[in-house]
Description:
By secondary structure, this protein is α/β, with parallel strands linked by helices. It has helices at residues 2-25, 39-46, 53-70, 80-94, 96-107, 122-130, 134-157, 175-178, 181-184, 186-209, 218-240, 260-263, 269-284, 306-319, 421-425, 449-464, 520-524, 527-550; strands at residues 247-255, 290-292, 322-332, 342-351, 357-362, 400-403, 408-414, 434-439, 468-472, 478-480, 486-487, 501-509. Helix content is 44%, strand content 13%.
Amino acid sequence: MANSVQKATWIRYALAVAAGLLLAASFPNLGIAGLAWVAPGCILFVAFGFSGGQAFRIGYVAGMAHYLASLHWLLFIPFPIGAAAGWLALSAYLALYPALWVWLCWRLFPNQIASKRNHLDATGRIDQFLATPVLRRMVWSLGCAVIWVALEMVVVRFLTGFPWNLLGASQYQILPVIQIASITGIYGVSLLLVWFSVSLVSAFLNLVNQPTRTRGWPGDLIVPLLAVAAAAAYGVRRTTQPKPFERTVSVALVQPSIPQTLIWDPNENTNRFNQLLELSERALAAKPDLLIWPEAAVPNMLRYEPDNYESITNLLARHKVWMILGADDAMPRLSAAEKREFDYYNSSFLITPAGELAMVYRKRKLVIFGEYVPLARWLPFLRHLTPIGGEFTPGDKPTPFIVPELDVKTSVLICFEDTFPHLAREYVEPDTDFLLNLTNNGWFGESAAQWQHAANAVFRAVENGLPLVRCANNGLTCWVDARGAMHEVYYPGTKDIYGAGFKVVKVPLLAAGETRNATVYRRYGDWLGWTCVGFTFGMTMGSLRFAKSKRDPGSKMAGFT
């Protein structure tokens, strides 16, 4: 008996790993979007029959498999010890969320399903599950989706947040489905996916267990199917009626494709800077209106390197073009006892054709262990897990970049700032023409990171109803229209996104004097996400109070055993 139970447990864990890998495969590079409609339900039902610690552990195993696979690009960072430690630690932390989701879902199921401690077999437990009225199962399936979204809201914000590969991002190429993000944010897509997935597996159990009852299983699926159909109908209408535009701006996007090891090598500063100048000269032959370089393009600090600054201003003066670029910056501390004390910033600059620094934006969301080391004052050994020599200071506000000669207004997001839905929303004003993301994905070689990052960017365009332009060190340099379609993804005649080169793209603008109609998400932000947080908190508190009322005062908390 003990051996059979142990064998069944290992089978469960193996199935949890498989379900986690299915979820990982829904994201780039494999990008099989349909798997995201199945995988969450599979993860949940691997823990079928458990409502306590065993369910949590099964969810954790599935989560570890998912994150270890989907975040494997962290191993490409050219700092092996830190890369491996970061990959394992981040995956171990993120796996807590699917684990908590599985535990909460089964704890909140309306009828207690037999656990391994009693003698009901698998068939008996399925019968017990299906004996629950279909309306209660339908409400529970929706509740599972609500809990998933609530946990995504937490992961986006807790410990500075890591909103990478939110479930909805797996659908970035399915444009009709993702248009609801203009109302709900990316969380609405996640909710649809989980609701359908849990309902699908529930219907499958019903069909397998009672194959002759054709009226049973559709009850689990009918409402989520109608919701998906309504979302898709809204999306089709939105994508087939694009807004016409009267003006465009010609933008030259330079992608130098500098390996991170060379960025860290001061002996290569001159070579890589000259490469940027050469690519820019070629791009400017097309006479664009605006020249853009990616994050960390300029070696050292722009305003404190006279030779580099002079080379850039000469380039702009010859071609009479405006420029936006990424570079480090430093400012004396206001409270510094000595003038040698500075705050360092990851910044972007708007430069006029006359060579003036018109505007500066300072990155607000810093990358943990890439731009700062948490708790370094108390845990100095953590500095050995990262190759960075110093730390940046975060900026404090968005800064719109206005080009009066072109009647263009943009707002810059640096690096992974465009993965934060609520943050990107703050950068959009009624007359903002487009968002601009400057990023350096050279940390991760030629990996899935570039595609996963771009998938997130698609949603910022849809959520706010305006284009988003990306200029990257080694991919994906492109632009995304207001409906989420990606343009100029590859270099002409190739399927390459990682190599050095440039692209001259035409980005649609608002008509002169026009303001943009705000999307529902732009107006009200994460209304759906916070609603899900409130419902999840209420359901959990209600469940705990109910369990407390049923147990003896001296017993352990019911459920988590």
